[in-house]
């Protein structure tokens, strides 16, 4: 059985002081929730201080991006080992990075491999835009991103990763995919692509999160679906009561 996993993607929000306040608000309740994995992904400058606050709490820490190279002349970038000093997770290939910073499946693939090499768990994001959705290209796009991002991994490596299906049209819009829409893509596109790549057993072991306007109200219904193994939460992860409620829903 796959343990559900909820991660909060704080994106480019909050000051250092605000991140510490938010963690302090969430920590007692979050760390008491058993039966689901949970993590927060703050902006990079706050990883060190939050790693200290979260130590031993059972709440994981993730970065929102990293470079694939180990070191060198890459001004402004963060290396895998730098992330791994503080974090257990790293979000890779988020649609905002693909849309605004030119990330391709090939770049995401290098990042996934680099993350695994330093012991980080990649949360690799895939998802179609509204135009692609309306043109009936959802399966083609999501399977291309899944297979491209994970190309060259062994099944033993693949079972360590998390995939987040985040339809771009659902992100920050208040218009989440229905639980049935998400279930269909998770089972028939993402898990099917994983099975094509790594075999059925590995595919069954890999967790697939849903992301896009997940909130305290719709979380339980989403998690009721057999192939929705958690959530990657944006806006609602910035409010302690909402994020706690979503993690509680995942714990069942
Ligand atoms: P929202 O939950 O704000 O729609 O964002 C989803 C997301 O992009 C998480 O990575």
Provide an overview of this structure.
The protein has 252 residues and is an alpha/beta fold. It has a single domain, classed as Aldolase class I (TIM Barrel, Alpha-Beta Barrel), CATH 3.20.20. It is 46% helix and 15% strand. The protein has 12 helices and 8 strands. It has an 8-stranded parallel β-barrel, surrounded by 6 helices. α2 links the parallel β2 (37-41) and β3 (60-63). α1 packs parallel to α2 (47-54), α1 (16-32) packs parallel to α12 (240-251) and α7 (138-149) crosses α9. The radius of gyration is 17 Å and the shape is globular. The mean pLDDT is 98.
Q: Radius of gyration over alpha carbons?
A: 17 Å
What structural class is derived from the secondary structure elements? alpha/beta
Number of E-type strands: 8
The DSSP helix count reads: 12
Tell me the strand order in the biggest sheet: 1-2-3-4-5-6-7-8
CATH topology, anyone? TIM Barrel
Low-confidence stretches: none
Q: Helical amount among residues, as a percent range? A: 40-55%
Name given to the CATH architecture: Alpha-Beta Barrel
Q: Ions, cofactors, ligands: which are bound?
A: 1,3-dihydroxyacetonephosphate
Largest sheet, strands/sense/barrel: 8 strands, parallel, barrel
**Regarding CATH, which class?**
Alpha Beta
Strand content of the residues, in percent? Answer: 5-15%
Which series of helices and strands comes N to C? EHEHEHEHHEHHHEHHEHEH
**Averaging pLDDT over every residue, what do you get?**
98
Shape: globular
Number of structural units classed as domains:
1
Give the oligomeric state.
single chain
**Alpha-carbon distance between the termini?**
14 Å
Mind telling me the CATH superfamily name? Answer: Aldolase class I
């Amino acid at each position: 059985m796959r343990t559900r996993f909820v991660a909060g993607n704080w994106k480019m929000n909050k000051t250092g002081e605000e991140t510490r306040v938010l963690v302090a608000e969430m920590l007692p309740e979050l760390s008491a929730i058993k039966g689901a994995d949970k993590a927060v992904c703050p902006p990079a400058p706050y990883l060190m201080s939050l790693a200290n606050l979260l130590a031993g709490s059972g709440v994981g820490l993730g970065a929102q991006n990293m470079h694939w190279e180990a070191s060198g002349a890459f001004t402004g970038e963060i290396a895998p080992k730098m992330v791994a000093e503080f974090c257990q997770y790293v979000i890779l290939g988020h649609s905002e990075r693909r849309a605004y910073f030119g990330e391709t499946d090939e770049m995401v693939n290098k990042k996934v491999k680099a993350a695994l090499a330093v012991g980080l768990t990649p949360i690799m994001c895939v998802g179609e835009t509204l135009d692609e959705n309306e043109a009936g290209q959802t399966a083609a796009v999501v399977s291309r991103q899944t297979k491209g991002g994970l190309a060259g991994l062994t099944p033993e490596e693949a079972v360590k990763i998390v995939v987040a299906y985040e339809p771009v049209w659902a992100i920050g819009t208040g218009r989440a995919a229905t639980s049935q829409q998400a279930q269909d893509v998770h089972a028939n596109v993402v898990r099917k692509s994983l099975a094509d790549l790594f075999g059925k057993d590995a595919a069954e072991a890999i967790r697939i999160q849903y992301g896009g306007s997940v909130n305290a109200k719709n979380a339980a219904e989403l998690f009721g679906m057999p192939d929705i193994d958690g959530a990657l939460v944006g806006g609602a992860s910035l409010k302690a009561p909402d994020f706690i409620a979503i993690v509680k829903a995942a714990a069942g």
